[in-house]
Each structure stands twice: as structure tokens, then as C-alpha cells.
Amino acid sequence: MIDLGHRDIAFVGRNSTYSVSMERLHGYMECLEKNGITPNPDWMIETAISLAGGKDGMSRLLDMDRRPTGVVCYNDLIATGALSELGNRGLKAGEDIALIGSDGVASSAYCNPPLTTVALEPERIGEVASEMLMKRLKNPDAPAMKFLLKPKLIVRKSCGLTRN
């Protein structure tokens, strides 16, 4: 979104009971700061991790006097709810406001407009987890292991840019 010129970017899906939500929120904040953008705490929307939570979060953003031009959602489920609220307001993702989800669920390609998402490759995560478990079982006293998979950005119309 920053590369597309957005500087007013919100985060929907902050939920302090989910560690992954907080990790993604911190990543969002770090990215803004690295690009010289001060995160707006009013745009870090605490909500349920659900379709209804995405709808509610987007509604709260749209009711603000100063709206963001882009929204990063904790996951594709929340982003789908946010897309619904945009439609209810006569707005369209990718034209009136940029929207990005995360997780890369298959249904995100069938949203209207299709949802830009950060795909996490759950099959590969499962593979790596099994490999790590087998190594741990063979050597229980080995040092802790950490493996970080690089996500893949799948650009679709909801962010306002499409790539062929």
C-alpha cells in the first residue's frame, strides 16, 4: 500500500487475546515507522476475529471524520467482512479504499473485488512443523528450533493494483 502512495493505513483485527494478532499488529506498526509514517492509534481497530468483526471494524473506520485510504486486516475472514461493509456503504475496495487480508484462503480470490492477501502456505507450515517434531523426538535435548516461512503477496483488485 505504501508503494501505491498510501500513508493513511489502518489495521483491523487487533485482538490482545491472540498472540498472532498482536504480532501482525506490531509488523504493521514497524512497517509504517520504517517508511516514516506515524501509526494512528485510532486506526488500530480492536475487533472480534470474524466476518462480523471485519464488518464492525470497517464500519467504525468509515464513521470517523478522517478516514484511512488503506486498511490491512488481520486475516482474510476479517477482510471479507470489511468488504461487505464497504459494499453496504456504496464503496468499493481498490477504488474508494485499498484493502489487504492475510492467510491466503482460497475464497479470497472469489470476493468482489478479489482480495489482495498475504498467503502463508499452511501446507508448508505443516510440513516444517512435522519435520521439526521428528527432529525433537530424535533429540529431545537439542536447542530450541525456529523456522520462519516467507509469505507470498498475492496482488488482486482490492488494493487498487493488479499484476498479470
TrEMBL record:
Residues 2-159 form the Transcriptional regulator LacI/GalR-like sensor domain. The lineage of its organism: Bacteria, Pseudomonadati, Pseudomonadota, Gammaproteobacteria, Pseudomonadales. Keywords: DNA-binding, Repressor, Transcription, Transcription regulation. This is Substrate-binding domain-containing protein. InterPro entries: LacI/GalR-like_sensor, Peripla_BP_I.
